[in-house]
Design a protein that fits this description.
Layout: H1 8-15, H2 22-27, H3 33-42, H4 70-81, H5 95-120, H6 130-141, H7 171-192, E1 201-205, H8 206-209, E2 222-224, E3 227-231, E4 240-241, E5 250-261, E6 269-276, E7 286-293, E8 298-306, E9 311-316, E10 343-354, H9 360-368, E11 372-374, E12 383-385, H10 389-405, H11 415-426, H12 431-442, H13 446-449, H14 460-472, H15 478-485, H16 492-502, H17 507-519, H18 540-560, E13 572-575, H19 577-583, E14 594-597, H20 611-616, H21 625-635, H22 661-669, H23 672-687, E15 700-705, E16 708-714, E17 719-720, E18 726-727, H24 730-737, H25 741-757, H26 766-775, H27 783-791
Antiparallel strand pairs: 1-10, 2-3, 3-10, 4-9, 5-8, 5-10, 6-7, 6-9, 11-12, 13-14, 15-16, 17-18
Helix pairs in contact: 1-3, 4-5, 7-9, 10-11, 10-12, 11-12, 14-15, 17-18, 21-23, 25-26, 25-27
């Protein structure tokens, strides 16, 4: 074959790789001869110096391997393995040369990383995330404070906060940690030493939740007959219930008995339940839930966290309902009801303070074991009764350390903590205060804040910890500790059984919520709001129903071990009546999420066409094939996309409709540094172009003309895939993708590994992940099968 001329500098650089210093040779193993020869012959001419094509300069690959150039080698390997390089416009290398390059390079890279893993482990030192810290303290102290609200936001690496490489610790974070620990201990000791439990219940009649002064214009429900009525309206805070104002921070259970007033003919009055101060100086409200009121009165129960001074708001929240107007921006007094407007009639409200972490007896036992507490009174503090305070302090601290450190602890390991507490007691500090100080110190120990793992195969207690935090987000329970103590937890059959147990009784829903909030960016569902001028039927009920659709869909996949291909295509989804109407279906009724068979005209199927996914991959006003394409490639198709070159400007859609996004991207792709990535990004991005920022199907782009929205250009969702095949629309795209279901399964396995182990996928992980995927082929790559293969894999069981 005819070879391109090879520049002298790059030829010398590659051929003389082995002539560097002896010290560097020892630190960096030399590349295989086949790799050097292949790159020199087929790649060097185009990839050298500042003008290297696609910004990939082979001169940057120094002698052998080190942290600086490992990823460059992987990139070169992948481009050849995918058939992208050498390019099609040059004579292809011999198939044997390609195979030899791939085999030798793969073995070289894998051995290098595996040796590194033996010394350091796959996972760096990993600390508890905000959520894990919150649940650890809740479990340890039997409390229920939403402590993560007090913590600073965390960075996400490869999509997850659990990845050790993206975690950091600073004086600022340590101060927040101490503050959170103090809040947790304050709540636990307050409840444990109280004279009586602080549970309370209020049963409020309609008259008690309505406006108290009939002549006062306000935002509360108004009494009409025997009911407290809230009309459909755009007034902010209309429907607030001051009678539900929280006297203390806490979780509250709200039971509402209500019915519809002047409901539409075909459906009920959908209402929101939210919470907040409900005053103009604090306009934000927190989502609690929703219900559909009908002519017949029903009861609904919700639970929400209310800081002191916050209250509940209950109101019609369906934007498809006709809305009332009130003069002066307040609900009228004595002016009569609005004309022909739906509303909700509240008959009774019951509000009860609850404790999710456990009752007072459970909490006291958790803190003080068998010691008795003399409760605090108006004139004296609480007293922890002990015949031998010094011995009891040592006993309590050792017991607490074993729970906090999530493993057996020898007395000498915490002797300095115990000595400090015993000295305080000797100096006259009450036992209960000294024990609290000891607990505080233990909760600031690295043994609590960090996972205790050593390079190599994990010990049983470390497996218990990793498995529990992976599936529950919290510390291991007594069953896991018992299995770890017996040395049984590293057995595959035991691990699989424990995974089933930890995901039983509805706990699989919490796992899916935790995992998908980061994997699929569902935590960003509130980040943008579709433009109300363009999306008049979208509202907060629809948004939260979308979340429920995706989370219920994934939970069902996990429970039934459905194929991971259902992420791309399925003949069912989960809807309630409100979301079904938003999607254009009138045959689904009720406010309960239910499984629904899909029709061809629904243009739905799989996670990729669910509203929550379509919303988090748009900005509220426009869609971008680039943004959706990158997201779909990385989150579901398993195709990592590198960051764009800094010199290349971003593509912003033309909201005027003068140019289509396809026209703009055609010019963008003419840049060779962009084309190599866009060949992967654009196909999935354009496949989803028929879905607008709110997740609805469209045939045309919207065209803004003044205040009117008209049909713009016809949407073209067709494209060509990197392998040369093409598709016309989302259905054709699905068919092409599902020709390789193992790719979808591999992507799921990789995300589970990253989330569960706290380490990004490495080159040396590829073969073990492939083994995980192949082991689940008999189940058609079932979701649950993949998860159980992950937790029994060497990758999961090794630091």
């Amino acid at each position: 074959m005819a070879l391109r001329p090879i520049g002298l500098s790059i030829a010398l650089t590659i051929s003389l790789w082995n002539l560097t210093s002896v010290a560097a040779e020892a630190a960096r193993p030399s590349p295989p001869a086949a790799a050097t020869a292949f790159l020199t012959q087929h790649c060097a001419d185009c990839h050298q110096g500042d003008a290297a094509e696609a910004g990939f300069d082979l001169t940057a690959i120094e002698n052998g391997l080190d942290a600086a150039n490992f990823e460059r080698w992987v990139r070169a390997f992948d481009r050849v393995d995918d058939g992208e390089m050498p390019p099609a416009d040059v004579e292809s290398p011999d198939a044997k040369q390609v195979a030899e390059f791939l085999r030798e390079t793969s073995q070289w890279l894998t051995e290098f990383q595996r040796e590194e893993t033996k010394q350091q482990g796959r996972t760096e030192a990993r600390r508890l995330t905000n959520q894990q810290l919150e649940r650890s303290l809740q479990s340890l102290l039997a409390i229920d404070l939403p402590l993560s609200l007090q913590m600073p936001d965390e960075p996400r690496t490869d999509g997850f906060t659990t990845v050790a490489a993206g975690q950091s610790i600073s004086h600022f974070q340590l101060q927040h940690h101490l503050s959170v620990v103090d809040s947790a201990l304050e709540e636990a000791f307050r409840r444990a030493t109280a004279a009586k439990a602080d549970d309370e219940q209020r049963i409020l009649s309609a008259n008690e939740v309505a406006r108290q002064n009939p002549r006062r214009r306000c935002r509360e429900p108004e009494m009409i007959g025997d009911d407290a009525v809230v009309w459909s309206s755009g007034l902010i805070f209309y429907g607030r219930l001051p009678a539900t104002t929280a006297k203390h921070d806490g979780w509250y259970r709200l039971t509402i008995r209500a019915s519809a007033v002047k409901k539409p003919a075909d459906y009920g009055v959908w209402c929101t339940v939210r919470s907040g101060p409900c005053v103009s100086s604090a306009p934000l409200l927190n989502w609690v839930g929703a219900f559909e009121a009908t002519d017949e009165a029903h009861e609904w129960t919700f639970e929400g966290w209310l800081p002191k001074g916050h209250m509940f708001e209950v109101r019609p929240g369906d934007r498809m309902l006709k809305r009332a107007r009130f003069r002066g921006g307040q609900v009228g007094a004595g002016e009569g009801e609005p004309q022909d407007v739906p509303g909700v009639a509240i008959h009774q409200v019951t509000m009860q303070r609850i404790h999710r972490g456990g009752d007072q007896q459970t909490l006291t036992r958790r803190l003080f074991d068998d010691l008795r507490v003399k409760p605090a009174s108006k004139n004296s503090p609480a007293v922890l009764i002990s015949k031998d305070p010094t011995a009891d302090a040592a006993r309590l601290l050792l017991r607490f350390a074993q729970m906090a450190f999530r493993r057996p602890v020898e007395a000498q390991e915490i002797q300095h903590y115990v000595a400090a507490v015993q000295q305080s007691i000797a100096e006259g500090q009450p036992l209960i205060d000294a024990v609290r100080d000891g607990y505080r110190a233990l909760l600031c120990s690295p043994h609590f804040l960090y996972f205790h793992e050593t390079p190599g195969r994990l010990k049983d207690y470390a497996v218990a910890t990793r498995l529990s935090y992976f599936l529950t987000g919290g510390p291991p329970d007594e069953s896991l500790h018992a299995l770890a103590a017996d040395g049984k937890l590293t057995q595959p059959s035991v691990l699989a059984a424990q995974a089933d147990r930890l995901l039983a009784e509805g706990r699989d829903q919490q796992f899916i919520k935790d995992f998908a909030s980061q994997w699929l960016d569902l935590s960003k569902i509130e980040f943008t709001e579709p433009d109300p001028k363009l999306h008049r039927t979208f509202d907060v009920i629809v948004q939260n129903s979308m979340l429920a659709e995706t989370e219920t869909f994934l939970t069902e996949m996990l429970r039934q071990d459905h194929p991971t291909a259902h992420l791309i295509e399925s003949d069912y989804t989960f809807l309630n009546g409100r979301l079904a109407r938003f999607y254009g279906r009138q045959d689904i009724q009720g406010d309960v999420i239910q499984q629904v068979a899909l029709r061809e005209q629904d243009h739905r199927g799989g996670v990729i066409t669910q509203g929550a996914i379509l919303k988090v991959t748009a900005n509220g006003s426009t869609t971008s094939p680039v943004i959706r394409g990158v997201w779909l490639s990385e989150r579901l198709l398993g195709q990592p996309i590198p960051s764009p070159p800094k010199s290349v400007p971003a593509i912003e859609p033309d909201i005027r409709g003068a140019k289509s996004i396809r026209e703009m991207l055609d010019k963008h792709r003419s840049d060779s540094s962009c084309a190599s990535c866009h060949v992967k990004i654009d196909p999935p991005g354009f496949a989803l172009e028929n879905y607008d920022p709110a997740g609805l199907w469209r045939d045309h782009y919207p065209l803004l003309v003044g205040r009117s929205v008209k049909k713009g250009a016809l949407i073209d969702a067709s494209y060509e895939l990197p392998d040369g095949s093409s598709f016309d629309d989302i259905r054709g795209f699905r068919q092409r993708v599902l020709q390789h279901p193992e790719s979808i399964a591999r992507n799921v396995a990789e995300h589970l590994i990253v989330y569960g182990t706290g380490a990004s996928i490495r080159f040396s992980d590829r073969q073990p992940i492939e083994a995980i995927v192949q082991s689940t082929q008999p189940s058609d790559y079932g979701f649950r099968s993949i998860l159980k293969a992950v937790v029994t894999s060497d990758l999961f069981l090794t630091k």
